[in-house]
Amino acid sequence: MKVVQALLESFTQVSVGEIVRLNSGDIAEIVYCDQKNPTRSLVKLLSDQSIVQLENQNSLYIEELLKK
Q1: Which of 24, 43, 59, 62 is most open to solvent, judged by the fewest CB atoms within 10 Å of its CB?
Q2: Is the CB of residue 52 less than 8 Å from the CB of residue 6?
Q3: Domain segments of the chain: what residues?
Q4: What tens digit of pLDDT does each residue of 5-43 get?
Q5: Measuring CA to CA, which residue among 66, 67, 68, 37 is closest to residue 53?
């Protein structure tokens, strides 16, 4: 269990600031990762600077990691 927790914490630390492509085609920056649910980040869309909480948007997900 500690190994999984360490891996999740590592993923969370690396992910903030990453630029990603969402399945909608939007490009976004990860601005916050919840340690309990790191794949459902809080992202900022680069097109209009709006904030999207993926946890609340079940139809949206990160499709590709672009750069940091």
Answers
A1: 59
A2: no
A3: 2-67
A4: 655 555 544 478 999 999 999 999 999 987 788 778 899
A5: 37
